[in-house]
Amino acid sequence: MNAAAGIPALKPEHLGDASFRRNHHVRYAYVAGAMANGIASTRLVAEMARAGMLSFFGAAGLGLERIEAAIDELARTAAGASYGFNLIHSPNEPGLEAGVVDLYLRRGIRLVEASAYLRLTLPVVRYRVNGIKRDAAGRIVAPNRIIAKVSRVEVATQFFSPPPQEFLDQLVKSGEISAAQAALAATMPMAQDVTAEADSGGHTDNRPLVTLLPTLIALRDRLQQQFGYAEGLRVGAAGGLSTPSGLAAAFAMGAAYVLTGSVNQACVESGSSDTVRKMLAQAEQADVAMAPAADMFEMGVRVQVLKRGTMFPMRAARLYDLYRVHTGLEALPEADKAFIEKQLLRATVEEAWRETRQFFLRRDAPQVERAERDPKHRMALVFRSYLGLSSRWANAGEASRQMDYQVWCGPAMGAFNEWARGSFLESPENRRVVAVAETLMQGAATQLSQFLKA
Fold this sequence. Notes:
It is a single chain. By secondary structure, the chain is an alpha/beta fold. The protein has 2 domains: about 5-275 and about 425-440, TIM Barrel (Alpha-Beta Barrel), CATH 3.20.20; about 310-405, no CATH class. The protein has helices spanning about 20-25, 40-50, 65-75, 95-105, 120-130, 155-160, 165-175, 180-185, 210-225, 245-250, 260-265, 275-280, 310-325, 335-345, 350-365, 365-375, 375-395, 410-420, 435-454; strands at about 30, 55, 85-90, 110-115, 135, 140, 145-150, 195, 200-205, 235-240, 260, 290, 300-305. The strands form 3 sheets. It has an 8-stranded parallel beta barrel, surrounded by 5 helices.
């Protein structure tokens, strides 16, 4: 008798780490990531939550009022189910990051996806350790959990390690936590779950998953042994995952869970527009490019975006080149200034600055104070306004601005389109986030079953 014949077929709910499914109260070790500006919408999150799968609302880039409205809506539409909110590193707007943490703590948001972090900050540490205590059995209980999305070993190390003592000392000094709570926090990781983010849409270092995932798994094992945590650390996989083969490969390499992004933006529940969904449905794997990031523009950080059907990557790159060379808006050559005013801003630079100034007075007033002292920073804020609006034009389907659409997208989108061709998922109107997730997971389980029986 062939021993392989006795191997039962894998089920989608058996893939990944059972403790991940148990800890997060979900059916599948599958996560829909937090695409910014509400692209990972409340509707998308609610659909996933009701289907027993984890997802995160795309809070990055939104104001506090909009985020709080999403909290209210999901409290109604996904009550009792598992879901979370995004917390993005904001090095150029530290007040905003702190304000989002204040909101999450006040509203009892217990799970966040921490993304784009270059290093730990006081707000993210404050979120993690708030309310830490021992339960009746003496176990350490931290009410707030983090799933960190990283692409660098040094950042993964910070999240898999206990909170830095300097931040704990600051929180004790400010009265946020007690000395006893700080001592408890020093024995737990910042995040039990760290996602290895490979070649993804949006913020990315374009790392290959086949090298990044094993590296972070090895790091997990070393730090688990070093710190001896009561609960084991886990590593998930993201970036380039959009086909059953891709998911199967990630699970076969040891991923505790998989996380998708680009394919969810193409689903009908996303906060994007029908125009963008059609553009994404036509994308091939090579139809992506890197462009300057609005939130980390001055640092030269780039995001991966769609280039087919839009001129945004080239236009954004030109803005960054001008920022790098010139001292301020007044120093721009006339030809470049005319291009910016007529093609991009559709306003004079003076008018654009007035609108940008009003925006930042509401969002982060210190930015305006700095810009009024520093012409180069004023130029950066005006250029960032174009980058920020380009995403909103795409989400709104602003027809007159299609050549300026910023659509975060990785090569996974092209791979998904190739795999879906000829199936019911080929048409954009049939792409529903739960159907996509279940089809991918079922396909991955089938492929792994066939591999085990071979």
